[in-house]
């Protein structure tokens, strides 16, 4: 059953060959950096193999994170080493729209 109030979530999707310890630290840092801007946020580590067919949709203006995403992204880019990243995006994620 869906939550009565949506829980804003940052997902860290990892590959099987990734070092789990490193991804846990990334999730912790993202959480620490973002929770002050968006209380109640969740950071999840997802095994890319287990979630091979995710569905993503653009964030809508009515979504709570929409007006905050620019500040959140700026803080992530300021505080983390993103030299090996291919993107930083904010999407809606789930099994239905």
Explain this structure to me?
This protein is 28% helix and 21% strand. The chain is α+β, with helices and mostly antiparallel strands. It has one domain (9-91). It has a two-stranded parallel ribbon. The protein has a two-stranded antiparallel sheet with strand order 3-4. The two termini are 15 Å apart.
Layout: helices, strands, pairs:
Elements: E1 9-14, H1 20-35, E2 42-47, E3 55-58, H2 69-79, E4 91-94
Summed up:
The chain is α+β, with helices and mostly antiparallel strands. It has helices spanning 20-35, 69-79, and strands at 9-14, 42-47, 55-58, 91-94. The two termini are 15 Å apart.
Tally of separate domains: 1
**Distance linking N and C termini:** 15 Å
Biggest beta-sheet profile = 2 strands, parallel
Strand content is 15-25%
Number of helices: 2
Keywords for this entry:
alpha+beta, 97 residues, two-stranded antiparallel sheet
